[in-house]
Amino acid sequence: MLLVLCVDLDDDLGRKTDFDTPVVGRDSVEAAAVALANADPEDSDVNVCFQGVHLHDDVAAEEGERVEVAVVTGTASADVAANRAVGEEVDTVLAALSTSEDVRALVVTDGAQDESVLPVIRSRVPIDGVRRVVVRQAQDLESMYYTFKQVLADPETRGTILVPLGILLLIYPVAILAERLRLPGSTLGIISALLGLYVLFRGLGLEEGIDDLLERVRVGLFSGRVQLVTSVVGTALVAVGAVAGLETMNRLAGTDAAALLATAAFVYGAVQWAAAAGVAVALGRITDGYLDGSFRWRHLNAPFYVIAIAVVLHGLTAFFVQVADASYLAATLSAGTFLGFASTLAFALVERRFLPGRDLELIG
Fold first, then answer.
1. Is the peptide bond before 173 cis (omega within 30 degrees of 0)?
2. What is the tens place of the pLDDT at every residue in 89-107?
3. Tens of pLDDT along 36-58?
4. Taking a C-beta distance cutoff of 8 angstroms, is the pair 46, 36 a contact?
5. Which one of 4, 63, 266, 312 has the lowest number of neighbouring Cβ atoms within 10 Å?
């Protein structure tokens, strides 16, 4: 048995006529269509109802199989609640069909919005096909409107499409304003750079990382975390170290130096600042761990490891740029190795001493 199912997702039939839904039967559906046409001749659901009657007559005349037609409606909001209402009315229609045959459905709609309910119908009855009814003079007009409506309603799509478009539209008025105010000619370049950065960040998905970083900063500000301050200090020290490294590279290696020598000179000039940054950040994390109860003695290894690595790098790069001899290199390598082993052993013994029940876990 074929069920021609006319879908009115926003319930125009129920709101504009006196018909109770669902409407089942050829004559009842035709009467409902006439009533809706009298109430609102411009409503596209009128065409859906008449198309359902037309399909009912064609199938009954040409194929000779049993066929029934019905109209099911949703709610005025045309949202999830409307889909549920359509599902309930489909159940009512199926229960009213007095047949032992397998029922298949031919769904008739007036556009893409009503077709969003197809999964709900398919979960109740197999669908043989979908017939979309539109006025010829307005072909695909409702589908285009629905697509634009969905794009503007989606925050992610809206941000991806409308924000760059808005920036592009602002370039011309900003250029005029810059000319009136006699601003530098680089204004357009700055705007273009901002637009390029935005597109790059969206393309690489970096906006989530920035959102996470800002959230961590906000939590750090309001939860009294020392690590936030030490991280800023560490960043400043790294920047100072980079400048010092470049100055040392220019002074010791010269502009025509080989890549290895230039790198060694840069590290030689920057390593003490980078080590200070690492120690500052490590002390911040240790302090926060102590305050929130997650402190372990082995955490104190971090600043000593940073210092040990810095000592080794300083000796190695000093040897490469020829400001120290092999004996200094050997001394720094030995000192860094000893400092790393000594701190590890010392804090492991302290943990065993004060937390005997966590020996194996804390040493690892």
1. no
2. 999 999 888 777 888 999 9
3. 999 988 888 899 999 999 999 98
4. yes
5. 63
Structure tokens at 32: 């409902």
**Cα distance between residue 331 and residue 325, in whole Å:** 10
Contact 247, 269 (CB under 8 A): yes
Q: Which residue has the tokens 């556009």?
A: 111
pTM: 0.41
Average pLDDT in the 121-150 region? 74
Token code pair at residue 154: 């989606």
